[in-house]
UniProtKB/TrEMBL annotation:
It comes from Cedecea neteri. It is an enzyme of class 2 (transferase). It comes from the Bacteria. Its EC number is 2.4.99.24. This is lipopolysaccharide heptosyltransferase II.
Amino acid sequence: MRYGLLNDSRKLDKEAWPLMVERYVALGYDKGVMQSAKDLPQPMLWPQLHVSEGEKTQACAAFNLEQQRPMIGFCPGAEFGPAKRWPHYHYAALAAKLIDAGYQVVLFGSAKDKDAGKEILAALSTEQQAWCRNLAGDTQLEQAVILLAACQGVVTNDSGLMHVAAALDRPLVATLWP
């Protein structure tokens, strides 16, 4: 039976497939091969991104990011608007503490996240602003991936860049809102 583009319909057995990730992985196999989560190859692989040290150095230089302070990435945007975002003043307070402790903070996101970055910057002192860069809307995706790889850690809302940071195996704090 064919429904639009779907030509391999499957009935979900939640007991056989208790985890959502297992259900999605199973879709990559013929339905006759996978009867339950126990049939999946173990250990289950996860997405991984790798960036060379040379790429990190080049990207940091291209955006004039200082090598003398370790970087912490902030991803303050969220696809579904302010209701899904950790408030900018919390990001600003954390940025101030990190900068005072010797880090630099780099803000990532799309052009529509630029204002959230401006609000974070505006809440910092002039001295702290020197160590916080708002790159939201200024990078291509590949550049953002490379720069996130150069970060010592990432603080993020539930966003695409959160998943990128996870695939880069960066230490990660994700703020998830209702």
